[in-house]
Amino acid sequence: MAFIPKCMSTQHPDNAFVPTYATDGVIKGDGEITEAVEVFNLGCDEQMWDSEGKETDNQVVQKLLSAHSDFFKSQHHLGKDSALTLRVPNPAIETEMRKSTVEALQGIPKAWDMASEFYGNDTEPPIQEVILPFTTSAQELALLDVYYQKFVVGQENQELLDSMVVKDWIGEFFPKRIRIIPLIEDLEHLTGSDLIVSDYLEDLSKRGVQVDYQRVFLARSDPALNYGAVSAEMMIKIALSKLSKLQERLGLPIYPIIGAGSVPFRGHLSPLNVNRAFREYPSAQTFTVQSAFKFDHPQAVVQSGIQQILSHERTEAPEIDELKAQGIIKKIAARYNQQVRDLIDVIGEVSTKIPKRRERKLHVGLFGYGRTLAGAEDVTLPRAIGFAASMYSIGAPPELLGLDVLNSEDLSFIRSVYPSFDEDMASSISFMNEDQVIELLGEETAKIAYELGNGVDRIHQGLTTAIWAGVKNKSSVNITDYIEEAAQLRRFLG
Questions:
Q1: Which residues contact 291 (CB under 8 A, 6 or more apart)?
Q2: Class for the domain spanning 7-311
Q3: pLDDT tens-place values along the chain, 494 residues long
Q4: Which of 171, 278, 464, 465 is the least buried, fewest Cβ under 10 Å from its Cβ?
Q5: What pTM did the predictor assign?
Q6: What sign does the CA torsion over 10, 12, 14, 17 have?
C-alpha cells in the first residue's frame, strides 16, 4: 500500500436519517456500492467492505469500476489513493459465518483481475488488507495469512491434467500476499494488544515475511457494551500507550485505527467534534466515519469533518497509570454488569422497535445478531448500536451506567486521562429523561446526571416519555416512529 489511510468509512448502521438510495430505510445490495462512491467523493480515503454479520457483495470492485469508470480512472485510484479493506468473520469465534471468510479471501484475486483490466500497467491491488474481528492471538492472524498464501494464491501451482497447473488454465493469482489487521475488542486483549502485535510480527519474520508497518484496529463500541463507556475509554488509552512503546521498541511504525461512532457511548466522533478524537487519541492514524457521521449532517459539514481527519498528524500517546486505570475499570464494569442485568427485559423489548438500517444475514441469540455481556455469557444483548439506541430512546443514556460507584478520587483520575469526560457526559445527559433515569437507574445515578449535565432537551424528553409509556403499557402507538424522531433530534440512532 502506497499510503496509510486516515479516514475509514464503515457500514455501521447508526444513522438516524437515511440516504436516498436506501430501500425502505435500509441500505443494502447496490446501495452499498453507491455509498462507497459517495464517501470517496466526500473525501474518505478508505472504505471498509464488511462480510461480518451481513450479506456482502464480492463483486464490489467489478461494480465500482464498471459503473463509475470515469470516477475511478481520473481520481480515486483503487489501491493507490483509495483503499477498499475487507472485514471478514473470525473463524475461531464466529463459527456460523466462517465459510464467508473463505469466500471473501477467494474474491481478492478476482478483484485484482478486474483492476488489472481497468488500470493496465498502473495496477495496484484494489484490496490489500483484511480486518480480523475479535482477535485474541497472533495465531488467529497467522492462520488467515497462511490460508491466503497456501490455499488462495497457492492453488495456482496445483496440478490439473497432463502437467498443466491451475495458473496455466485460469492465470496467476494476485496479490501474492495481503496484510492482516487485528480488530481487538475485549478488555484482556485490548490491554495486551502490544503482545498480540509483537507476536504476530515475530511470526511473520520467522516465515520470511518482511513488513514496513502494521495497522491495529481498536474497537470502541463493544468495549463500552461490555464494560461501560468510561471503561472503554481507559482501555483504549492503555492500548494506545502500549502500542506506542512497541513502535519505539521495534523501530517499526504501528498505525492504530479507532473504531468510534457518533454517540458518546461509542466514541463521540461526529463531523461537529472531530477535535475531540484528536484530543483523546493523539497517536491514532485512522478514524472511522460511520453512518451517522455521513448521513445525519449537511454534506458541507461532513466534508469539513473528513478534511479535518485527513489533515491530522498523529503524535505520541500519553502515559497512563495502568494499575489505577484497571482498578477503576473493574469497579465500573461490575456495577455496569449489574445494572444491565436489571434492564435486560426492557432493553430487549425496546430493541425490537429500533428501525433497521442495514441488512444482517444471521440471527444469533435472543435479540438477533448480538453480543454476550462480559462475565455474563447467559445474557445476550443487542449489538452496541441497538443497545445505545434502546437506552437513549427511553431517556436513560447508557453513559450513566456504572458511574454511581465512583468516588471523587476516581473522578479526578478519569478526568486526567479522559479530557473530554465532562463534555461527553453533558452531551449525553442533554438527552435524558429525569423521571425515567430515576425509575430505571436509581436516584444516585440521577444525582450524578444533575451534577454533570448542562440542561435537557425538552422535545427529546417528551418523545422518550411517549416511548416509555408505550413500552410499559404495550400500547398500539407506533413506538418506532417516536424512536426515529428522537434519533433525528440527536443526529444519531445509537
A1: 10, 11, 12, 13, 14, 15, 27, 357, 358
A2: alpha beta
A3: 568 999 999 999 999 999 999 988 899 889 999 999 999 999 999 999 988 665 667 789 999 999 999 999 988 999 999 999 999 999 998 888 888 899 999 999 999 999 999 999 888 999 999 999 999 999 999 999 999 999 999 999 999 998 899 999 999 999 999 999 999 999 999 999 999 999 999 999 999 999 999 999 999 999 999 999 999 999 999 999 999 999 999 999 999 999 999 999 999 999 999 999 999 999 999 999 999 999 999 999 999 999 999 999 999 999 999 999 999 999 999 999 999 999 999 999 999 999 999 876 543 332 334 455 565 556 678 899 999 999 999 999 999 999 999 999 999 999 999 999 999 999 999 999 999 999 999 999 999 999 999 999 999 999 999 999 999 888 767 899 999 999 999 999 99
A4: 171
A5: 0.95
A6: positive
302 vs 17, 26, 385, CA distance in Å? 14, 21, 21
Task: State the pairing for strand pair 286-289/371-373.
Answer: unpaired
Listed in order, the ranges of the chain carrying CATH 3.20.20.60 are 7-311
For residues 388 and 398, the answer to whether their CB atoms sit within 8 Å is: yes
